[in-house]
Protein backbone atom coordinates (compact mmCIF):
# COMPACT_ATOMS: atom_id res chain seq x y z
CA UNK A 1 0.00 0.00 0.00
CA UNK A 2 1.30 3.44 -0.90
CA UNK A 3 1.95 5.85 1.97
CA UNK A 4 0.17 8.67 0.12
CA UNK A 5 -3.32 9.35 1.48
CA UNK A 6 -5.93 11.53 -0.22
CA UNK A 7 -8.04 13.89 1.86
CA UNK A 8 -11.28 14.48 -0.03
CA UNK A 9 -12.51 17.80 1.37
CA UNK A 10 -15.81 19.65 1.29
CA UNK A 11 -14.82 23.11 2.54
CA UNK A 12 -18.44 24.20 3.07
CA UNK A 13 -19.54 21.25 5.24
CA UNK A 14 -20.94 22.18 8.65
CA UNK A 15 -20.97 25.92 7.84
CA UNK A 16 -17.26 25.93 7.09
CA UNK A 17 -16.09 23.25 9.53
CA UNK A 18 -14.90 21.13 6.59
CA UNK A 19 -12.12 23.55 5.65
CA UNK A 20 -10.93 23.86 9.26
CA UNK A 21 -11.15 20.09 9.88
CA UNK A 22 -8.76 19.17 7.09
CA UNK A 23 -5.71 20.56 8.91
CA UNK A 24 -5.89 18.54 12.18
CA UNK A 25 -6.84 15.40 10.24
CA UNK A 26 -3.87 15.86 7.91
CA UNK A 27 -1.56 16.53 10.87
CA UNK A 28 -2.60 13.28 12.55
CA UNK A 29 -1.93 11.32 9.36
CA UNK A 30 1.44 12.99 8.75
CA UNK A 31 2.46 12.34 12.35
CA UNK A 32 1.87 8.65 11.65
CA UNK A 33 4.23 8.79 8.67
CA UNK A 34 1.80 9.21 5.79
CA UNK A 35 2.09 11.64 2.92
CA UNK A 36 -1.16 13.61 2.56
CA UNK A 37 -2.61 15.08 -0.59
CA UNK A 38 -5.69 17.31 -0.34
CA UNK A 39 -8.34 17.12 -3.05
CA UNK A 40 -11.02 19.81 -3.44
CA UNK A 41 -13.20 19.69 -6.53
CA UNK A 42 -14.89 22.47 -8.44
CA UNK A 43 -18.40 21.20 -7.71
CA UNK A 44 -19.62 17.63 -7.08
CA UNK A 45 -19.02 16.26 -10.58
CA UNK A 46 -15.47 17.54 -10.74
CA UNK A 47 -14.77 16.37 -7.18
CA UNK A 48 -15.99 12.86 -7.97
CA UNK A 49 -13.91 12.74 -11.15
CA UNK A 50 -10.81 13.69 -9.19
CA UNK A 51 -11.57 11.20 -6.43
CA UNK A 52 -11.92 8.39 -8.96
CA UNK A 53 -8.62 9.41 -10.54
CA UNK A 54 -6.97 9.23 -7.12
CA UNK A 55 -8.37 5.75 -6.52
CA UNK A 56 -7.35 4.54 -9.97
CA UNK A 57 -3.90 6.06 -9.37
CA UNK A 58 -3.37 3.86 -6.32
CA UNK A 59 -3.89 6.20 -3.36
CA UNK A 60 -3.51 4.37 -0.04
CA UNK A 61 -6.91 5.60 1.17
CA UNK A 62 -9.57 8.14 0.32
CA UNK A 63 -10.59 10.06 3.42
CA UNK A 64 -13.75 12.16 3.14
CA UNK A 65 -13.79 15.36 5.20
CA UNK A 66 -17.31 16.75 5.51
CA UNK A 67 -20.80 15.44 6.16
CA UNK A 68 -22.94 12.59 4.85
CA UNK A 69 -23.07 14.18 1.40
CA UNK A 70 -19.27 14.11 1.12
CA UNK A 71 -19.08 10.56 2.49
CA UNK A 72 -21.74 9.55 -0.04
CA UNK A 73 -19.76 11.15 -2.87
CA UNK A 74 -16.62 9.32 -1.74
CA UNK A 75 -18.53 6.03 -1.78
CA UNK A 76 -19.11 6.46 -5.51
CA UNK A 77 -15.33 6.45 -5.99
CA UNK A 78 -14.27 3.61 -3.66
CA UNK A 79 -17.19 1.14 -3.64
CA UNK A 80 -16.23 -2.14 -5.26
CA UNK A 81 -12.49 -1.34 -5.11
CA UNK A 82 -9.75 -2.30 -2.65
CA UNK A 83 -9.14 1.34 -1.66
CA UNK A 84 -10.24 1.93 1.94
CA UNK A 85 -12.49 4.83 2.91
CA UNK A 86 -11.96 7.01 5.96
CA UNK A 87 -14.47 9.58 7.24
CA UNK A 88 -13.68 12.81 9.10
CA UNK A 89 -17.25 13.69 10.07
CA UNK A 90 -17.79 17.44 10.48
CA UNK A 91 -21.14 17.93 8.75
CA UNK A 92 -24.64 18.46 10.08
CA UNK A 93 -25.90 14.88 10.08
CA UNK A 94 -22.87 12.55 10.14
CA UNK A 95 -25.07 9.43 10.22
CA UNK A 96 -22.69 7.22 8.24
CA UNK A 97 -19.84 8.01 10.64
CA UNK A 98 -22.08 7.29 13.63
CA UNK A 99 -23.07 3.94 12.15
CA UNK A 100 -19.38 3.09 11.78
CA UNK A 101 -18.61 4.09 15.37
CA UNK A 102 -16.34 6.95 14.29
CA UNK A 103 -15.71 10.25 16.14
CA UNK A 104 -18.00 13.09 15.12
CA UNK A 105 -16.80 16.70 14.91
CA UNK A 106 -13.41 15.66 16.30
CA UNK A 107 -11.18 15.76 13.21
CA UNK A 108 -7.90 15.20 15.03
CA UNK A 109 -9.21 12.10 16.78
CA UNK A 110 -10.80 10.81 13.58
CA UNK A 111 -7.56 11.36 11.65
CA UNK A 112 -5.57 9.51 14.32
CA UNK A 113 -8.02 6.60 14.22
CA UNK A 114 -7.74 6.41 10.42
CA UNK A 115 -3.93 6.42 10.63
CA UNK A 116 -3.91 3.66 13.25
CA UNK A 117 -6.29 1.56 11.16
CA UNK A 118 -4.06 1.93 8.10
CA UNK A 119 -0.84 1.11 9.94
CA UNK A 120 -2.32 -1.99 11.58
CA UNK A 121 -4.34 -3.04 8.49
CA UNK A 122 -7.42 -2.94 10.74
CA UNK A 123 -9.86 -2.42 7.90
CA UNK A 124 -13.54 -3.34 8.11
CA UNK A 125 -15.77 -4.41 5.23
CA UNK A 126 -19.38 -3.18 5.29
CA UNK A 127 -22.43 -3.44 3.05
CA UNK A 128 -23.79 -0.67 0.86
CA UNK A 129 -27.09 -0.06 -0.85
CA UNK A 130 -27.18 0.44 -4.61
CA UNK A 131 -29.88 2.04 -6.75
CA UNK A 132 -29.33 2.26 -10.52
CA UNK A 133 -25.57 2.21 -10.04
CA UNK A 134 -25.52 4.80 -7.23
CA UNK A 135 -24.25 3.66 -3.83
CA UNK A 136 -25.55 4.69 -0.42
CA UNK A 137 -24.40 3.96 3.11
CA UNK A 138 -27.26 4.98 5.38
CA UNK A 139 -30.97 5.18 4.50
CA UNK A 140 -33.11 5.44 1.38
CA UNK A 141 -35.99 7.70 2.47
CA UNK A 142 -39.36 8.02 0.77
CA UNK A 143 -42.73 9.50 1.62
CA UNK A 144 -43.26 12.15 4.27
CA UNK A 145 -39.56 12.58 5.01
CA UNK A 146 -38.55 12.86 1.36
CA UNK A 147 -41.29 15.44 0.77
CA UNK A 148 -39.86 17.44 3.68
CA UNK A 149 -36.51 17.28 1.88
CA UNK A 150 -38.13 18.40 -1.37
CA UNK A 151 -39.75 21.38 0.34
CA UNK A 152 -36.64 22.26 2.36
CA UNK A 153 -34.48 22.22 -0.77
CA UNK A 154 -36.85 24.69 -2.44
CA UNK A 155 -36.71 27.12 0.50
CA UNK A 156 -34.17 29.93 0.35
CA UNK A 157 -34.88 31.14 3.89
CA UNK A 158 -34.17 30.48 6.73
CA UNK A 159 -30.85 28.63 6.67
CA UNK A 160 -29.59 25.58 8.54
CA UNK A 161 -31.73 22.99 10.31
CA UNK A 162 -34.49 25.52 11.11
CA UNK A 163 -35.42 25.47 7.43
CA UNK A 164 -36.28 21.77 7.70
CA UNK A 165 -38.25 22.31 10.92
CA UNK A 166 -40.45 24.74 9.00
CA UNK A 167 -40.67 22.30 6.10
CA UNK A 168 -41.90 19.59 8.49
CA UNK A 169 -44.67 21.88 9.76
CA UNK A 170 -45.70 22.82 6.23
CA UNK A 171 -45.81 19.19 5.08
CA UNK A 172 -47.77 18.10 8.16
CA UNK A 173 -50.50 20.58 7.28
CA UNK A 174 -51.07 19.01 3.87
CA UNK A 175 -49.82 15.44 4.13
CA UNK A 176 -51.92 12.34 3.53
CA UNK A 177 -50.73 8.69 3.54
CA UNK A 178 -49.55 7.46 0.17
CA UNK A 179 -50.49 4.27 -1.69
CA UNK A 180 -47.30 2.15 -1.83
CA UNK A 181 -46.58 -1.04 -3.70
CA UNK A 182 -43.61 -2.86 -2.14
CA UNK A 183 -41.71 -5.95 -3.26
CA UNK A 184 -39.18 -7.64 -0.96
CA UNK A 185 -36.57 -9.84 -2.64
CA UNK A 186 -38.38 -12.04 -5.17
CA UNK A 187 -41.59 -12.34 -3.17
CA UNK A 188 -45.01 -11.08 -4.25
CA UNK A 189 -45.60 -7.35 -4.17
CA UNK A 190 -47.97 -6.02 -1.54
CA UNK A 191 -49.86 -2.76 -1.27
CA UNK A 192 -50.10 -0.53 1.79
CA UNK A 193 -51.09 3.03 2.60
CA UNK A 194 -48.03 4.46 4.30
CA UNK A 195 -46.78 7.72 5.73
CA UNK A 196 -43.22 6.79 4.83
CA UNK A 197 -41.05 3.83 3.90
CA UNK A 198 -37.35 3.85 4.82
CA UNK A 199 -34.83 1.31 3.53
CA UNK A 200 -31.93 1.19 5.96
CA UNK A 201 -28.44 -0.09 5.36
CA UNK A 202 -27.49 2.02 8.38
CA UNK A 203 -29.75 2.79 11.30
CA UNK A 204 -30.23 6.57 11.14
CA UNK A 205 -30.67 9.65 8.99
CA UNK A 206 -31.22 13.35 9.60
CA UNK A 207 -28.53 13.63 12.28
CA UNK A 208 -29.44 10.75 14.57
CA UNK A 209 -33.07 9.90 13.75
CA UNK A 210 -32.97 6.11 14.20
CA UNK A 211 -35.66 5.32 11.65
CA UNK A 212 -34.21 1.83 11.02
CA UNK A 213 -32.88 1.33 14.54
CA UNK A 214 -32.10 -2.38 14.15
CA UNK A 215 -30.14 -2.09 10.90
CA UNK A 216 -26.66 -3.64 10.86
CA UNK A 217 -23.98 -2.58 8.38
CA UNK A 218 -22.57 -6.03 7.69
CA UNK A 219 -25.48 -8.50 7.72
CA UNK A 220 -26.23 -8.45 3.98
CA UNK A 221 -29.77 -7.16 4.55
CA UNK A 222 -31.74 -3.94 4.66
CA UNK A 223 -34.12 -3.07 7.46
CA UNK A 224 -37.28 -1.73 5.81
CA UNK A 225 -39.35 0.46 8.14
CA UNK A 226 -42.95 1.05 7.05
CA UNK A 227 -44.88 3.71 8.94
CA UNK A 228 -48.54 3.08 8.15
CA UNK A 229 -51.48 5.39 7.60
CA UNK A 230 -50.90 7.70 10.57
CA UNK A 231 -53.06 10.68 11.37
CA UNK A 232 -51.26 13.97 11.90
CA UNK A 233 -51.81 13.65 15.66
CA UNK A 234 -50.31 10.14 15.71
CA UNK A 235 -47.38 11.23 13.58
CA UNK A 236 -46.65 14.15 15.92
CA UNK A 237 -46.78 11.78 18.90
CA UNK A 238 -44.59 9.11 17.31
CA UNK A 239 -42.08 11.41 15.60
CA UNK A 240 -40.00 12.30 18.72
CA UNK A 241 -39.58 8.57 19.46
CA UNK A 242 -37.51 8.19 16.28
CA UNK A 243 -34.44 9.60 18.04
CA UNK A 244 -34.44 6.65 20.46
CA UNK A 245 -35.73 4.08 17.99
CA UNK A 246 -38.74 3.30 20.18
CA UNK A 247 -41.13 4.20 17.34
CA UNK A 248 -40.61 0.63 16.09
CA UNK A 249 -42.87 -0.59 18.92
CA UNK A 250 -45.84 1.44 17.67
CA UNK A 251 -48.66 -0.65 16.10
CA UNK A 252 -48.60 1.51 12.95
CA UNK A 253 -44.95 0.63 12.34
CA UNK A 254 -43.73 -2.61 10.76
CA UNK A 255 -40.18 -3.73 9.96
CA UNK A 256 -39.13 -6.12 7.20
CA UNK A 257 -35.69 -7.45 6.25
CA UNK A 258 -34.65 -8.06 2.68
CA UNK A 259 -31.64 -7.89 0.37
CA UNK A 260 -33.62 -6.24 -2.45
CA UNK A 261 -36.51 -3.79 -2.17
CA UNK A 262 -38.66 -2.21 -4.85
CA UNK A 263 -40.78 0.81 -3.89
CA UNK A 264 -43.56 2.30 -5.98
CA UNK A 265 -45.67 5.33 -5.03
CA UNK A 266 -47.00 8.32 -6.98
CA UNK A 267 -45.23 11.69 -6.87
CA UNK A 268 -42.53 10.60 -4.43
CA UNK A 269 -38.79 11.29 -4.70
CA UNK A 270 -36.36 8.84 -3.13
CA UNK A 271 -33.44 10.28 -1.14
CA UNK A 272 -30.36 8.34 -0.03
CA UNK A 273 -27.62 9.72 2.23
CA UNK A 274 -29.60 12.97 2.03
CA UNK A 275 -29.25 13.28 -1.74
CA UNK A 276 -32.08 12.88 -4.30
CA UNK A 277 -32.05 9.63 -6.29
CA UNK A 278 -35.08 10.30 -8.46
CA UNK A 279 -38.77 9.53 -8.56
CA UNK A 280 -40.18 6.19 -7.46
CA UNK A 281 -40.35 3.40 -8.57
CA UNK A 282 -36.84 2.55 -7.38
CA UNK A 283 -35.16 -0.77 -6.64
CA UNK A 284 -32.46 -0.91 -3.97
CA UNK A 285 -30.05 -3.84 -3.59
CA UNK A 286 -27.91 -4.54 -0.54
CA UNK A 287 -24.39 -5.40 -1.70
CA UNK A 288 -22.41 -7.29 0.98
CA UNK A 289 -18.87 -6.12 1.81
CA UNK A 290 -19.07 -3.45 -0.89
CA UNK A 291 -16.60 -1.05 0.73
CA UNK A 292 -13.55 -1.25 2.98
CA UNK A 293 -13.62 1.34 5.77
CA UNK A 294 -11.16 2.65 8.33
CA UNK A 295 -13.37 2.04 11.33
CA UNK A 296 -13.61 -0.09 14.47
CA UNK A 297 -14.92 -3.58 13.94
CA UNK A 298 -18.55 -4.14 14.92
From TrEMBL:
Keywords, in A-Z order: ATP-binding, Kinase, Lipid biosynthesis, Lipid metabolism, Magnesium, Metal-binding, Nucleotide-binding, Phospholipid biosynthesis, Phospholipid metabolism, Transferase
PANTHER family: LIPID KINASE YEGS, SPHINGOSINE KINASE
Keyword Isomerase: no
Cofactor: Mg(2+)
SUPFAM superfamilies, alphabetized: NAD kinase/diacylglycerol kinase-like (SSF111331)
Protein name: Diacylglycerol kinase
UniProt-listed InterPro entries: ATP-NAD_kinase_N, Diacylglycerol/lipid_kinase, Diacylglycerol_kinase_cat_dom, Lipid_Phosphate_FormReg, NAD/diacylglycerol_kinase_sf, YegS/DAGK_C
GO molecular function: ATP-dependent diacylglycerol kinase activity
EC number: 2.7.1.107
Family of this protein: Belongs to the diacylglycerol/lipid kinase family.
